[in-house]
Amino acid sequence: MWQIIGAGAIGCLWAANLKRSGQNVHLITRKAIANPVLHYQDLQQNKYRFNISSGQQLLNNKDPILVCVKATQVKQAILNQLPYIGENQMIILMHNGMGCAEQVQALLPYNPIICTATANASLVNAPLNIQQTGLGMTYLGAYNRPIAIANSLTSRLNNALDNTYWVENIEQKLWLKLIINICINPLTAIYQINNGKLQAPQYQQQIIKMCEEAIKVAQAEGIKFEQQTLFKLINDVINATAENFSSMNRDIFYQRNTENEYINGYLLEKARDYNINTPTIAALYQQIKERENTIADNEKQR
Ligand code: PAF
Predict the structure, then answer these.
(1) Nearest residue (CA) to ligand 1, atom 1
(2) Which end of the chain is more exposed for a tag (fewer CB within 10 A), N or C?
(3) Is the pTM here over 0.85, yes or no?
(4) Beta-carbon count within 10 A of 228 CB
């Protein structure tokens, strides 16, 4: 069985595809749901309904836990489940941004932690009702210790969603995803545009600068990227997801807290450690922070 914390876009996408491939899933949701049914539409527009097991706490302390909440919620989600997590239980983190694995390791120092970088995407139409909007690669890799069952784990996940791979150097994939998010998310959130609009020259100029700044910080961390290749990879994502609104765009649109601290904020903290100047990334971080402050003020006045 798989236990999935978080019934958002990514949690439901995995739950639906694990169920479709005949695997058992228990979905941990924030509120209790009576007789939960998961509605899923795949890329070919096939529609599925799955009766699922769900509840507010983990069912057992053995089966692997897929943590599919946003970076801002990972620590609290683990804290909520702490009494039900076994010492050797595997924790698989699936979210945008970086910095959560460190937080989870501090709470669960003996548990094997796996980090992932995924390009799969889905859209939440209503609670427990999603549609797949993109099929991309998913990479998994060990964060704190070797995983003896890496192959069988990956193959079970790959049976659910194709293009799931185990990698020895997950850091490289995490940094690539981080830089993709740095280049796409704040711009699309500030200007409230879809990803495809970033093809316009004024945004491309900013993306070039952000790549240059991020590459220096990654290099200081021992992760190498070549400028032209990285710029092309970012534009491949922009083109492949042209119609999509990024997760940060949606968060600002719906007046929610964003993953700014775990995306731009994470990079800025590293840049400070190495004394590297990152003015473009810092300016966008600041603009998102200001929008978040306005959202928090509006919330208080309600
Ligand atoms: O955060 C997101 O929305 C996605 O990670 C990405 C790749 C930017 C596509 O929208």
Answers:
(1) 247
(2) C
(3) yes
(4) 9
Domain locations in the chain as residue ranges:
2-168, 172-301
Q: Which residues form the catalytic set?
A: 177
CB 3 within 8 A of CB 26: yes
The CA 194 to ligand 1 mean position distance, Å, reads: 10
Phi, psi (degrees; rounded to nearest 5) at 62: -125, -50
Ligand 1 surroundings by CB, under 6 angstroms: 96, 180-181, 184-185, 195, 237, 241, 244, 246-247
> Could you identify the atom of ligand 1 that is nearest to the CA of residue 259?
1
pLDDT digits (tens, 9 = 90+) for 127-173: 999 999 888 899 999 999 999 999 999 999 999 999 999 999 999 99
Under a CB-based contact definition with an 8 Å cutoff, are residues 127 and 35 in contact?
Answer: no
C-alpha dihedral over 65, 68, 72, 75, to 10 degrees? -10
CATH number of 172-301: 1.10.1040.10
Distance CA 285, CA 271 (A): 13
Task: Please state which CATH class domain 2-168 belongs to.
Answer: alpha beta
Look-up of token digits 């400070």: 272
Q: How far is CA 14 from CA 40, 138, 235, in A?
A: 11, 11, 26
**Rounded Cα–Cα distance for residues 139 and 142 (Å):** 11
Outline where the chain has alpha helix (H). 9-20, 71-81, 100-107, 150-160, 170-190, 201-220, 227-240, 247-253, 264-273, 279-301
Closest-lying ligand 1 atom to the alpha carbon of residue 245: 10
pLDDT at 134: 85
Helix (H) or strand (E) holding 67: strand 65-67
Centroid of ligand 1 to alpha carbon of 247 (angstroms)? 6
